[in-house]
Design brief:
The complex is a heterodimer. Chain A is of the alpha/beta class. Helices cover about 35% and strands about 20% of the residues of chain A. The N and C termini of chain A lie close together (about 10 Å). The N terminus of chain A is likely disordered. In chain B, strands 6-7-8-3-9-10-12-11 form an 8-stranded mixed beta sheet, with helices on both faces. A 4-stranded antiparallel beta sheet of chain B has the order 2-1-4-5. Chain B is α/β, with parallel strands linked by helices. The chains are: A alpha/beta, B alpha/beta. At the A-B interface, helix 9, helix 10, helix 11 and helix 12 of A face helix 6, helix 7, helix 8 and helix 9 of B. The complex binds adenosine-5'-triphosphate (ATP) (2 copies) and magnesium ion (2 copies).
Chain lengths: ~350, ~325
């Protein structure tokens, strides 16, 4: 088993063509230094939120990114869309190098790449009705000159999120919608420009269980029937498992494992993935037992541990793990892991 | 006799648009040392139920009937002074939803626990410090960290500090409102493990409020499922998870994603959560229920025992709900 790079491996395996290619993406947030530190010329320090991540996503795929709070999922999603400027690395969408675009070119690309923000309450102006909420991106893109022209687009977007008949909802305000409907509007707003790629950042974490299924199935239908590609960001492995084609696991700004969903969930290879899956509670009182929890806490992303970032908490770490950072290598078809000992 | 017996408890909030019937004739029991999970969607009245038991109501909230018996004594009837002196925090205490974010950032963690002890107990400062150290140790935090500030603690540790504070006066019953909702899986597991150990060691009774059914499945003996201010299904966790019987209970249990199950479509329940200002007449779930008939729109169903083991369901169509038939299957 050779150390094939992530991108090479995935291009050669699997079904569809690659639509998004991320290479060695890095995003650091510099820490503000005190005057004393500056005078003493201490080195600039930074939060290493995303620290060299490579992967690709195929057309029509639902690609899940999971990991603990603070591991860099949101930062990665936003940097891919250049809502945050990358510190280093390259993002390619079809044949467009996103990381090289000017601001004006980037604005055009927004019609093809969209984001659904985590919190539908925060991201939605309570004083705007549905019609105006969804028309906003059309207006920003200059695709319609007045609100009447926007109606056909909006009706189509409402039909896409299965809110029919659209007239019924056009002039309602957010408080006149259920939680699930509100989140559908957030999806409709992302869809109105007919994007091919959507970053969905925790789109259901604020919703009650009974309505989560609506949104997740909607994403699934959009990917299967319309070929929309999703990057689904979540800390909830259980939902990712139900809708994703592939899942990647992040730890402290790095991708430690990725693979087809079933393979990753049933045969996790990385000690971190195993712990993460073990910690997920099962809604079944006959399968009681707290999973083995990793010792200690997630270290600071300002001074991440040397070598393998998991080593201080890892149950199988050896000396090499403190010194050498493991590369992401393929274990078998499309399943890749970054661990010195995962492959036996 | 159960340690805590709640019967027909009613608590309404008065608003300009009428009464919000947030707790509407709720009954349940908890035995000593047992844990009851309360599940249900946002706004169904879980927190309201807890603050009613503890009589920590906002000025517009009022108890409209029912009893809460602790060791046989109806604590709804006690006057405020007596309740404060002998029940709240002493016998029944609570970990509030979001409490870990309410720790005071400029005071040391240990001092905040000491403050909580001194507020309720007539002990010297030194005794309180000793007790605070014991409490930290009890929830798995090294007492040496007494002098640290909240920002030096992780989310899971802060949550454990808040639990330690609720244990300050050795209560018999602890109510934990969404104690792990803000935490991620790894830390959630640590906190719940600590709570479970404490409960066993101190023979505590616990009411665990959460919308996360997997947490209840893993940590509770019994479960009560609330819908629109009422308990619609109640029973032993094994009975309820194996044979959820109320249409809502069934929908909730079956739509909960399970990482260990085979991959299936994620389910959902169609329709709106009800408006508690004007809840639907009859069975409050009828507008969303595939089985609803005439009687469901007229009469409110009572919570009645079905089969054995005190599994209870409030549904007129309970006879149609043969065990194992999935009414939500499309
Ligand atoms: N604007 C910022 N300035 C400085 N640090 C930041 C900024 N945004 C994020 N971070 C830090 O970067 C790291 C990654 O944060 P990020 O929000 O990407 O994590 P996440 O995986 O999305 O977490 P969560 O599951 O909690 O949403 C964290 O340590 C966070 O504190
Ligand atoms: N002080 C108040 N005055 C009027 N209505 C209130 C008040 N507090 C809560 N409510 C209403 O009472 C109902 C029950 O609220 P409660 O907070 O008990 O729900 P919950 O089940 O705890 O929800 P969540 O899961 O979101 O915490 C809701 O409809 C809420 O809007
Ligand atoms: Mg995030
Ligand atoms: Mg609540």
């Amino acid at each position: 088993m050779g150390a094939v790079s992530a991108t090479e491996q995935e291009r050669s395996v699997g079904h569809g063509e690659v639509i998004l290619d991320v290479e060695n993406l890095v995003k650091y947030f510099p820490l503000r230094r005190g005057i004393g530190q500056s005078l003493r010329r201490e080195p600039e320090r930074a939060v290493k939120a995303v620290d060299g991540v490579s992967f690709n996503v195929k057309k029509g795929e639902l690609f899940g990114v999971v990991g603990e709070s603070g591991c860099g999922k949101t930062t990665m999603g936003r940097t891919i869309l250049r809502l945050l400027e990358p510190t280093a690395g390259r993002v390619t969408f079809e044949d467009i190098e996103v990381t090289a675009l000017s601001v004006e070119q980037l604005k055009q690309l927004r019609t093809r790449m969209q984001i659904i923000f985590q919190d539908p309450y925060e991201s939605m102006n309570p004083r705007l009705d549905v019609h105006r909420i969804i028309a906003e991106p059309l207006r920003i893109q200059g695709m319609v000159s007045n609100s009447k022209d926007a109606i056909p687009y909006i009706e189509k977007a409402l039909e896409d999120v299965e809110m029919t008949p659209p007239e019924e909802y056009l002039y309602r305000y957010p408080h006149e919608l259920s939680g699930g409907q509100r989140q559908r509007i957030a999806v409709a707003r992302a869809l109105v420009l007919n994007p091919e790629f959507i970053v969905a950042d925790e789109p259901v974490s604020m919703l009650d269980v009974s309505i989560r299924g609506e949104i997740l199935n909607l994403m699934l239908n959009l990917s299967r029937e319309r070929g929309v590609t999703f990057l689904y960001i979540t800390h909830d492995l259980a939902t990712a498992r139900h809708i994703c084609d592939r899942i990647a696991v992040m730890y402290l700004g790095k991708m430690v494992e990725k693979g087809p969903t079933d393979s990753l969930v049933k045969h996790p290879l990385h000690p971190y993935t195993r712990a993460l899956i073990g910690a997920v509670f099962v809604p079944d009182p006959k399968r009681k037992g707290f999973g083995k929890v990793l010792k200690g806490e997630v270290p600071s992303p300002v001074d991440p541990p040397s070598g393998c970032r998991l080593h201080p908490r890892c149950p199988i770490a050896q000396d090499i793990c403190k010194e050498v950072e493991p590369e992401l290598v393929s274990a078998d078809d499309n399943h890749m892991v970054a661990c010195h000992f995962a492959l036996g | 006799m159960a340690l805590l017996e709640v019967r027909d408890l009613k608590m309404y909030y008065k608003t300009l648009r009428g009464h919000v019937k947030a707790v509407d004739s709720v009954s349940f029991d908890i035995e000593r040392g047992k844990a009851l999970g309360i599940a249900g969607e946002s706004g169904c009245g879980k927190t309201s139920m807890a603050v009613t038991v503890l009589r920590l109501l906002p000025s517009n909230g009022k108890i409209h009937g029912g009893s809460v018996k602790l060791d046989g004594v109806d604590i709804v009837k006690l006057d405020d002074e007596e309740f404060r002196k002998s029940i709240r925090w002493k016998k029944i205490s609570m970990v509030f939803q979001g409490a870990m974010n309410a720790l005071n950032p400029v005071h040391r963690v240990g001092d905040q626990i000491v403050e909580a002890i001194l507020a309720h107990e007539d002990v010297s400062h030194q005794e309180a410090v000793t007790r605070a150290e014991e409490l930290l140790d009890m929830v798995g935090i090294n007492p040496k960290r007494y002098k640290e500030y909240p920002h030096e603690f992780s989310g899971g540790m802060k949550q454990r500090v808040v639990i330690a504070m609720a244990l300050a006066c050795n209560p018999d019953v602890i109510i934990a409102d969404e104690p792990t909702t803000a935490l991620d899986v790894m830390v959630q597991s640590q906190v719940l493990k600590a709570m479970e150990d404490l409960r066993k060691r101190l023979d505590l009774s616990m009411i665990l409020i959460t919308h996360d059914l997997s947490v209840i499945a893993q940590t509770c003996d019994n479960i009560a499922i609330m819908y629109a201010g009422k308990i619609v299904e109640y029973g032993n966790v094994i009975d309820v998870f194996d044979h959820p019987t109320h249409p809502y209970g069934m929908g909730l249990v079956k739509s909960f994603p399970n990482i260990k199950a085979e991959r299936t479509r994620v389910r959902s329940l169609p329709g709106f959560p009800p408006n508690l200002l004007a809840p639907p007449k009859g069975c409050r779930f009828h507008p969303r229920c595939p089985l609803a008939g005439d009687i469901c729109m007229e009469e409110e169903p009572e919570l009645i025992e079905i089969g054995s083991n005190s599994h209870k369901v409030a549904c007129h169509k309970v006879d149609m709900l043969e065990r194992g038939v999935d009414i939500w299957e499309q």
